[in-house]
């Protein structure tokens, strides 16, 4: 039910539409474009020859992430529909928290946990270092926990701004843990990839491309998490944090899909350069801190570092 005109005018005079519903609208618009990229990358993955030889588990992860991203996109659209269409000319609705805001944060939490766990598994395959892998996994689990605690607590607050303001410590702690998780995973990945350098041009070029992809994909999500944290600390009563949060899950998914779809690039841009269909990477396996390398020879007689796991598990 709409409020009387004088009450509507009073509410609108006290609400800054730009930093609230305006930035949320922009977040949905941009996230829709990123969702399109997710769909293209998912399609590209399943039509690539590499997907045929990938394990069923990996294919299921890709499908599950696409389903979660589709659900997330529908949820954030419903948020704007609620405020702008269902409650058109009802400014009082802007003060109320809708269930879908907490729900989209939970979906984001599931996406981030799946992607970060995927990359932690790669760190384990690269390093076989229990302490480093456990530390990265600890940050990942902490990230998931905080991402669940915050939205669940928002369900107990009827007001949107009230929830954002009173849960500032919880929300900022969760974002801080997210930064730690992303940075630790990226640093560990780059460190162990660098340990795999052997001085051989082909293998070092491949490792260099892996490092570039790791830094590029990892820095993008980390930058958005940091921006989200800064926005939340600077203006908890406004909705700049939703602008970044609407896009975070999609950036996580695309970092994983980019790593899977870049395997040809990592090998040097050609699938047919050697007769080795999947180069195992034991160059990167560490035993008691020392990198162990072995070698195979391609049809041209060039020595290439051998690796223990298929390249699809280490491309980052």
Explain how this protein is built.
- The structure is a single chain.
- With 316 residues, the protein is mainly alpha-helical.
- Helix content is 71%, strand content 4%.
- It is built from eleven helices and four strands.
- It has helices at residues 5-14, 18-47, 49-53, 56-86, 99-127, 130-154, 160-166, 168-194, 201-234, 240-261, 263-266, and strands spanning 286-287, 290-291, 294-297, 303-306.
- The strands form two sheets. Strands 1-2 form a two-stranded antiparallel sheet. The protein has a two-stranded antiparallel sheet with strand order 3-4.
- Strand 3 (294-297) and strand 4 form a beta hairpin.
- Helix 4 runs antiparallel to helix 5 and helix 5 packs antiparallel against helix 6 (130-154).
- Mean pLDDT is 80; it is low at 270-313.
Features:
316 residues, mainly alpha, two-stranded antiparallel sheet, 4 strands, 4% strand
């Amino acid at each position: 039910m709409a409020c009387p005109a004088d009450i509507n005018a009073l509410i609108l005079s006290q609400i800054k539409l730009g930093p609230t519903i305006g930035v949320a609208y922009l977040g949905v618009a941009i996230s829709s474009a990123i969702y399109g990229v997710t769909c293209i990358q998912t399609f590209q993955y399943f039509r690539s020859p590499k997907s045929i030889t990938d394990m069923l588990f990996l294919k299921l992860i890709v499908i599950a992430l696409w389903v979660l991203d589709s659900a997330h996109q529908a949820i954030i659209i419903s948020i704007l529909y609620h405020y702008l269409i269902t409650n058109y000319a009802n400014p009082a609705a802007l003060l109320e928290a809708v269930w879908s805001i907490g729900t989209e944060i939970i979906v984001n939490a599931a996406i981030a946990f799946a992607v970060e766990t995927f990359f932690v598994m790669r760190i384990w395959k690269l390093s076989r270092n229990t302490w480093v892998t456990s530390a990265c996994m600890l940050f990942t689990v902490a990230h998931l926990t905080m991402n669940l605690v915050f939205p669940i607590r928002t369900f107990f607050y009827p007001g949107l701004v009230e929830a954002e303001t009173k849960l500032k410590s919880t929300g900022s702690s969760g974002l801080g843990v997210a930064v730690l998780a992303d940075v630790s995973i990226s640093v560990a990945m780059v460190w162990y990839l660098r340990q795999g350098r052997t001085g051989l041009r082909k293998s070092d070029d491949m490792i260099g491309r892996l490092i570039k992809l790791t830094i590029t994909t990892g820095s993008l999500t980390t930058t958005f998490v940091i921006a989200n944290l800064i926005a939340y600390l600077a203006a908890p009563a406004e909705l700049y944090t939703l602008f970044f949060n609407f896009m975070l899950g999609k950036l996580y998914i695309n970092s994983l899909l980019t790593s899977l779809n870049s395997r040809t690039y990592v090998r040097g841009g050609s699938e047919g350069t050697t007769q080795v269909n999947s180069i195992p990477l034991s160059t990167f396996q560490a035993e008691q801190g020392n990198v162990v390398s072995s070698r195979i020879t391609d049809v041209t007689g060039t020595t290439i570092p051998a690796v223990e796991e298929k390249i699809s598990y280490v491309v980052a």
